[in-house]
Amino acid sequence: MVFAGAVAAVLAVWWIGSIVTSPKLIPPPDAVAVEIFSNPGYYSAAALETGGIASIGLLLSIMLSLGVGLIAVLTPRSRPLIETLAIMTQTMPMVALAPILVFVFGFGSGTKIAISVIISFVPLLAVVTGRISRMPLAAREAAEVLGLGFGPRIRFIELPNVLIGVGAGLRVCSVLAIIGTIIAEFITPQSGLGAMILIGRNNYGVTTVFAGLVLSMALGLVFYGTAAWADRSIVAHLAPSRVDIDEYPENRN
Amino acid sequence: MSLRYLALLLLGVVLSGCGEQSAPRKERTVQFHIDWTPGIDYAGAYVAREKGFFKEAGFDVSIIPGNGAEESAALMSQDRIGIGTTTADALLRLAHTGNEQLPKVAAVVFTRNPVVLVASGDTKIRNLPDLKGKRIGFSEETSVTFRQFSYLLNQSPDLKRGDVELVKVLWDGPRRLMAGDVDAVLGYATDVPVELEANGFKHSVIRLELWGIKVASQVVAVSSALKLSREETGRFVEAMVKGWEYARNNGDETVALLRMRFPALGDARKLKRGLEETVKLLPEVIPNQAYEAYTGRGVIERALQESDVVVSRMETAPKPIDIKAMLFN
Fold first, then answer.
1. What pairs with residue B104 in β-bridges?
2. What distance in Å separates the CA atoms of residue A227 and residue B19, rounded to the nearest whole number?
3. Are the C-beta atoms of B121 and B199 separated by less than 8 Å?
4. Lateral strand order in the sheet of B165-168
5. Alpha-carbon distance B119 to B115, whole Å?
6. Distance of residue A137 Cα from the nearest chain B Cα, in angstroms
7. SS3 A60
8. What string of DSSP letters covers B128-160?
9. Among all residues of chain A, which has the CA nearest to that of B62?
10. Could you tell me how many helices (H) and strands (E) chain B has, helices first?
11. A189 touching B (Cβ < 8 Å)
């Protein structure tokens, strides 16, 4: 209900914007819908391409954030270095970095996935390292009292602590994976929504550009919804309250 | 009788051998890099692919879009692109920087300068001094259109830089002109005037070549990264020339092919007009001698020399160049 209301509000503002300015500047929603449905194969292929690349980028971002987070757990002194390097990747302009990425990964999907990962992994990493640094002292003391080894400590103490807060990072990361992919498609405009928007723009096709915007927003909602679902079902399932120490009988006193 | 039978058998063997020789060649995979996003300016390459001319010549071709002529020329000089399009002036500028690993020009596709200044109908611009007090829209400082126009302003004795207000309009030039934000915009003859025409907006077009900017535009260049023999490269370029000539003579079909592949290119009528303007930039062709018109050594050398008259003056400290060393053939 809330979702439908939000969509209706956006459509209303869009329609008014189109009337107040000019349909040549802001094409009305119905014109954009006609454009999309007159070439469904083309637009769905572009959205699927972007969605596919963003999915791979998101998956790699999650793996990278958790992997790097694990390094931060193992070597707490490396945390400032990890954070500094992560921030540096965020402040590098993609336009400057793109030629190097193209050189390494070529003109195909590799470069797009790399840019998607670079743009999306930091929020999740920030959550992971933040959670690690704010680990409750009582939990660490409990691990020591229980005499937990490395594996159980990660499983019962560190990982649940990280996963409690990871949902928020995952939601941001999921949307950024799409933005990253579209930016990459501007840089290597072969396929996907970014390339389509660029072709539309270079040919003064405002309706095409808006069709691209609508589809990228729709993708964003799908990704965000999936991340929110993952947050609720998977992450919440692994929260500390659900952890059963009986799975590791060797750690009983 | 048996001798005749034997002779027929031998003939059969010989003919089947000939058949084997003319069997389809194994296709070579080639990435052809255009210097901008897909559009009517690259119709020849897309027609060659969609109509199977590349396949007939033995190539499986992917067409890779680019980010501008300057970047394409630079990537070729770094051996990161094997074959693709760029512009004569981008290549010459690279040459004047002293770059020693220059790509070689295998064909000139656009022999004329497509850059135009498009003024709204009620703006009187005939000569350079008429620009005094005018607001001129441009896309990017690094664009070919801006470079050429800046050069004109700098070398004109009748104009100072402050006499003309330069307004960055990015890719919104036609709309900004129609809205009256600027008096004229820079663009290509194949896009801005066509867009204005489609919107029924009264305008006038001044080709920058009439003000002395005579440069060849699109060229096909080859770097040492291309893993094709000279004969294969020639065959590849010939297939592309065939594509351009097909596009020249079959406008409706070309537009339909492009729109089927890229619906984002928009309206068919607009594309057709764009193609009509594009065709005017192609070399003049004598029947059955199209390949020579695009790739002849004299043709390319003349185009580069003519372009260099302007480009060498545009550069602040141009290094001497050897145009003959830039020829592929």
1. B222
2. 61
3. no
4. B165-168, B135-138, B184-188, B115-120, B203-207
5. 13
6. 53
7. helix
8. GGGGTT-EEEES-TTSHHHHHHHHHHHH-TT--
9. A190
10. 13, 10
11. yes
- What's the first-to-final CA gap in chain A, in angstroms? 52
pLDDT by position in tens, chain A (length 253): 788 898 899 999 999 999 998 888 899 999 999 999 999 999 999 999 999 999 999 999 999 988 888 888 778 888 888 888 888 888 888 878 888 888 888 888 999 999 999 999 888 888 888 887 777 788 878 888 888 888 888 888 877 777 777 888 888 999 999 999 999 999 888 899 999 999 999 988 899 999 999 999 999 999 999 999 988 876 667 655 544 444 444 444 4
CB atoms within 10 A of CB A48: 14
The HSE-up count of residue A30 (CA atoms within 13 Å, CB side) is 3
Q: In the Cβ-directed half-sphere of B123, how many Cα atoms lie within 13 Å?
A: 27
> What's the pTM value of the predicted model, to 2 decimals?
0.83
Gap between the Cα atoms of B245 and B20, Å rounded: 31
Residues facing residue B166 across a β-bridge: B136
Report the alpha-carbon distance of residue A125 to residue A148 in Å, rounded.
25
**Which among A36, A196, A204, A208 is the top mutation candidate for probing chain B, defined by the most B β-carbons within 10 Å of its own β-carbon?**
A204
From residue B221, give the alpha-carbon distance in Å to each of A107, A166, A248, B72, B279. Answer: 18, 51, 67, 10, 20
Is A195's Cβ below 8 Å from some Cβ in B? yes
Structure tokens at B120: 């709204």
Task: Give CA torsion, residues B67, A196, A176, A103, to 10 deg.
Answer: -30
Angle at A47 between CA B256 and CA B265, to 5 degrees: 25
Q: Which of B40, B41, B67 to mutate to test the interface with A (most CBs of A within 10 A)?
A: B67
Structure tokens at A246: 């009986």
Inter-chain contacts counted by CB atoms under 8 A, chains A and B = 54
Q: Assign 3-class secondary structure to B240-262.
A: HHHHHHHHHHCHHHHHHHHHHHC
Dist. CA B14–CA B12, nearest whole Å: 5
**Torsion angle defined by CA atoms of residues A187, A193, A196 and A197, in that order, rounded to the nearest 10 degrees:** -80
Question: Which run of H or E residues covers position B298?
Answer: helix B297-314
Interior/surface letters A131-165, b for 16+ CB within 10 angstroms, e for the rest? bbeeeeeeeeeebeebebeeebbbbbbbbbbbbbe
- Whether the complex's predicted ipTM is more than 0.90 is answered with no
The helix/strand/coil state of B168 is: strand
The whole-angstrom separation of Cα B65 and Cα B76 is: 14
Distance of CA B92 to the CA centre of its chain: 15
Closest in A39, A190, A203 to B39, CB measured: A203
User: Rounded to a whole number, what is the distance in Å from the CA of A149 to chain B's nearest CA?
Assistant: 51
Which residue, chain included where needed, has tokens 């003519």?
A: B306
3-state secondary structure of B78: coil
